[in-house]
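Weekly sync notes, structure subgroup
Attendees: PM, AL, DS (notes)

Item 1: joint prediction request from the bench team. They want all two components modeled as one assembly rather than separately. Inputs as received:
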Amino acid sequence: MMLLTNDQVVDLAIIAVLLIGVAQFRSVRRARAGNLIAAAALACSAWLVVYRYGLIDPGIAAAGLALGLLAGAWLAAKVNMVQIPAMIAFQHGAGALAAVLISFVELTRLPTADTVVRTLSGVLGMVVGALTFTASMVASGKLSKRMKQRPSFLLWHNTMLLAGIALAVFLSIPATRAPGAGYAYWLVLLAAVSGVLGVLFSIRVGGADMPVLISFLNATAGLAAAFCGVAIGNRLLIAAGATVAASGSILTYVMCEAMNRTLGHVLMPGKTPVQNPRITEADRGVDALSEVSVTEATKTSDPLPAAAEAAIAVTSVIIVPGYGMAEGQAQHETVLLANQLVSMGKKVRFAIHPVAGRMPGHMHVLLAEADTDPDLLIEIDEANQAFRDTGLVIVVGACDVVNPAAITSTGTPISGMPILRADEAQNVVVCNLDRRPGYSGVENPLYDKANTILLLGDARVTLRQLREALEAAK
Amino acid sequence: MADLYIMLAVFFASLAIGFLIIAKVPPRLHTPLMSMTNAISAVTILGAFLIFSVETGSWVKLLGLVAMGLAAFNVVGGFVITDRMLRLFRRHERQAGTESAEGG
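Output from the run, pasted for the record:
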């Protein structure tokens, strides 16, 4: 192995700084510094590229840079935390399109005698970039509700996908050959086919599967950047892209685990009708010994006083927030209720399911925005040990993640998915909009349990009413 | 050719180190993590600068302009949103003046 040149040493140093920045995300306290370190590393590498290679058209480059920076900063400052997943998907799309354009330009001007690896990388960068671009735009559209959230199935969907993949492979063969007449047209055609493939993949993914899709696109955006880096021959680009690909892959895996699904299952879903489990009498019965007796009466009388009564009587409360809470903008009311319960001397915790939001960790951000004490947040494993000894669980806008049918039934979309065992608590108050099934379409037997009180309607209203009832009783 | 081996080594080393580091990120920070890595993936902006490093035709300049704008949009947006989120996480800690527990 020869000695490294100065340029290589500088590049490796910047890569090390970038990785040090990423490593700070192991701790909440240091993450903010880590973000700034990573940003500084990228700024340095951009400056380095300009310093080493120069700019022929500084005016045009600066114009593009300024426009992008202004638009990016403006939108980033304006977006609210519920919209974050849609915004991140949109940014993924923008970055991926940039990778497509750069790969295209590099491919068309690579010297003919260049290595196959570089050309192949350029082609892959373009294909993966185009896929990521269109899929991210679809994901962003779905997340911001500009498109319908349910999966869309086209006629011959799988056939079209396979045909598209075959066509992309076929087009890649001339694209990796030496540039000749009409080379650019082959590349444009290949990018277009890849883009269509991205749409075909992503429109079949919907609502609750979004965390998987957005994590996967995170990984592919990184991969596109890394391929682009090999084509250009830039070590920084390769290292940064590979790091992002690693991160996205881990998040994809975590999300798939949390839903007990495989990536293939999410991207290539079958069109099977939902079979609802039969709710047995045993499911309806009270199987836990109630700390407080709020049983049969609650089903017939006004649920609000019963819910308040339960909340006053118990010593510990676990709140289970779901995406419905964010959709109903009820996070502030939820936190106010939690504060009220704390002031009444109760032990209050928030149980966070890994897929409670629309992207990994989304619920933590939403609760942080509503100024929740982060020490009150517990993850699924800790929560599931605590439910049995908990007097009251308050479910806010969550359905599938607390659906005991995931354990008791087989053959449903949620069977085998790890859930929060809210059903094991002594009392359950459900503050959902209605009692319809969640995204999975599976009926929730929790709603029918004798010790469950349903406070249906806008959670902002029901939670406020509950809090006021507790205040009045004090 | 040596350069190619270095590139491949850089790719796999970064992938491996990335896996090791990111597996230890607590679930609480997963959204900021993705937002930051989203910004990092716009490192393709280096490629946009390189488009302008040699004499090119006007079509390529136009493509370079668009690529530069898109990558800049992604890079600054990602870092700014991440910073906003992480400020939210720290806000409570500062207000309460207490030591927040580390990790998820």
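Discussion: Residues 98-104 of chain B have pLDDT under 50 and may be disordered.
Action: AL to compare against the crosslinking data before next sync.
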